[in-house]
Design brief:
A 4-stranded antiparallel sheet has the order 3-4-5-6, with no helix packed on it. Strands 7-8-9 form a 3-stranded antiparallel sheet, with no helix packed on it. The chain is globular and about 50 Å long. It has about 110 residues and is mainly beta.
């Protein structure tokens, strides 16, 4: 048996508790980063053979948290969020064309 699912855990320092952020999310949190205001986490994950970017709002305190697709068209890799957390740059590629740099607003 091998469990390849990588869970994303959140620790509340004030309460001293730890919980899984996305227990029903059926994908790995391969790469993640907090937004500039720490109000959300951006998660880069593989889904059905494509790299996609999801956003998890931390302000709602929704249990379980919900991962909302931000960029899910085609195959997207190498996400980089700008300093103010409003824009993301990434590479999009496909079998029939080379990688190109894209920019999107969050």
């Amino acid at each position: 048996f091998e469990a390849d699912r990588w869970r994303l855990m959140v620790h509340d320092r004030q309460a001293g508790t730890t919980r899984e952020l996305l227990p029903t999310f059926d994908a790995n949190a391969d790469v993640y980063q907090f937004t500039a205001d720490n109000a959300a986490i951006l998660i880069n994950t593989m889904d059905r053979g494509r790299e996609k970017l999801y956003r998890v709002d931390l302000r709602t305190r929704q249990t379980p948290a919900r991962a909302v697709p931000v960029i899910s068209d085609a195959n997207n890799v190498a996400f980089s969020v700008d300093r103010d957390g409003r824009t993301v740059a990434f590479l999009r590629d496909a079998a029939d064309r080379p990688a190109e740099v894209y920019v999107a607003r969050l």
